Amino acid sequence: MKHYTLKNGDQFPAIGLGTWKSRPGEVKEAVIHAIKSGYRHIDCAAIYMNEKEIGEAFRYCFENNIVKREELWITSKLWNNAHLRDDVRPAIKNTLADLQLDYLDLYIIHWPVAFKPEKLNAPNAEDYLSLEEAPIIETWRGMEEIQSVGLAKHIGVSNFSIKKLDDLYSKATYKPEVNQVELHPYLQQKELFDYCSQKNIILTGYSPLGSGDRSEGMKKDDEPSLLENKTINKVANKHNASPAQVLISWHVHRGNVVIPKSTNPSRIEQNLASIALQLDDEDLKTIESLDRHYRYVDGRFFVKEGNSYSNIYDE
Length: 315
Ligand code: A2P
Hints:
The two termini are 35 Å apart.
């Protein structure tokens, strides 16, 4: 497996298993199958509401000597209702209890958006804390504290623009090491990629296959399909690979981490096997031409008249 080496020498595996939308009743078997197939990186989040079941999968794997804890890279995310500095430690403690772990390899701020602590969802403007009430740097101080006591080995962010990341970077004592964002050939985010490379921040791409299993409410009528894209399919046929493998391999060639989600055993294996696919310069050039700045997960659902979050992406 290709890895990226972090400042302290830890190795961050380039392909991980995504667990957003992985249903309870399916996710335990999926995680066990992934680990048995060779995955060493599992991406989780409290808000996916499946961490307890993923914790059972980890325990099964450790008890049956399928893998050792230190061989796995496990990420989780701080939900929007725990942005107050003193709420960060209880939030990671809950996640650790659910996942049955003593530490995370990586803990990241899920969105640059704060909800009131009692709100899991925030449909109305009054469900949010303002940026004055919950400044991102204060949330970050909470993240630095949990890193300094060893609850997370690395800390980072998700869904941060260059502007937000740069502001945080300039104020942070422990610098963010990762930014997890939506990333695929329709949303290549070149400037963000270059910024992160300069600052030694590893970019992780979510929704690499277009997240076709999102709820209908999250979908637009005329969404373009990545898996059915003609160019992607042409490249796949040329290499005797699947479209998903081309989409995953594109990240590996570019030098970022990628976390395709699947709960299907053969697709779980197929996605990891993308690591062996060698795209050539011509393939990469044609894939580059597909960029159209298209988001499948549009964080502008957090924009409510009167709250602080009118410019999620600073674009
Ligand atoms: P499934 O879990 O049944 O395999 P994303 O990672 O962009 O969120 O996309 C996840 C979606 O893509 C899920 O619907 C998942 O279905 C599907 N998927 C995962 N791997 C593949 C694959 N190799 N080929 C086709 N679809 C896939």
